[in-house]
Amino acid sequence: MRRALHEAGPGDLSFGLWIMAKLFIGIDGGGSKCRARIRDESGAKLGEAEGGVANLYQDFDAALAMIIETARAAAASGGARIEELHAGLGLAGAMTADAIEHVLRAGLPFAGCTVDSDAYVACLGAHNGGDGGVVIAGTGSAALALIGGERHVIGGWGFLLGDDGSGASVGRAAIRRAVLAFDGLTESSPLLDLLLDRFGRDRGQLTTWARTARPREYSSFAPLVFDAAANKDRHGLAVVHQAADAIALMARALIARGVPRLTLIGGMARALEPYLAEDVAVRLVAPKAEPVEGAIMMARRADGFAGLPS
Q1: pLDDT tens for residues 255-264?
Q2: Is residue 40 assigned to a domain?
Q3: Domain range for residue 238?
Q4: What's the rounded Cα separation, in Å, for the pair 89 and 25?
Q5: Order of all β-strands in the sheet with 45-51
Q6: Predicted TM-score of the model (pTM)
Q7: Are residues 297 and 271 located together in one domain of the fold?
Q8: Structural domain tally of the chain?
Q9: How far apart are the first and last CA of the chain?
Q10: Is 204 among the domain residues?
């Protein structure tokens, strides 16, 4: 991975002088997967890879291990070494200075490293580094806007305190309704029957599962809920509308703060859009680039380079 300092001939004193081109890796780590992509200074893509969960809230050590594993896989696909990569890490759970410092102190094997939240790199990518905002509806949820150099953050509190409108919250809400139906406290529906059947309609099996279930496990039920809503299942519709209302609430907060562009991203974005209130739906624009590209942009900026070449 080398490039010439400049074109030179045998008579030039710098003939044969080469320098290493800097390589940048962007990592987008979330509650369901970790994506890594490598580009060189010119913006050429050299390699990429995808791994599993990389959420600092859920398991800090496991998240770092997954980041390294995915980065090594991306490096191998691009003929590079992880030790020569300048990294930009956009991570679920990196919402506080303490969390970011904890990652930076971990001694990750990169040539350089800058860390921020997954929402921040998503916003950078969605608006190519310019002013704008994102609402993330994935395994978790959060909203972030960059306006005139100022950052506005909403949500990102994690599964125990927040994640309203997320896949995990959709799955949890549906299962809670199924529990009520099990106890005869609400009328059941095809969705709730399906969920109860998944656990053998057994109280012990369900409570044992819930004792250790992570957001990703709850989120795995979200597709069933959206399918049920499409079939007019009343519980499915209620849960989906509740999630859409939560996402709309965050979007309206960013709109009220003057965000010029707003993008809805994440694994649930497409499924949720038909249920969003009109005042929010009409403000949404397509992202210019993926969050992993925003992570690369962050790494380039940290090393004094401009955004990704067009």
Answers
A1: 999 999 999 9
A2: yes
A3: 167-281
A4: 8
A5: 45-51, 34-40, 23-29, 85-91, 112-117
A6: 0.83
A7: no
A8: 2
A9: 21
A10: yes
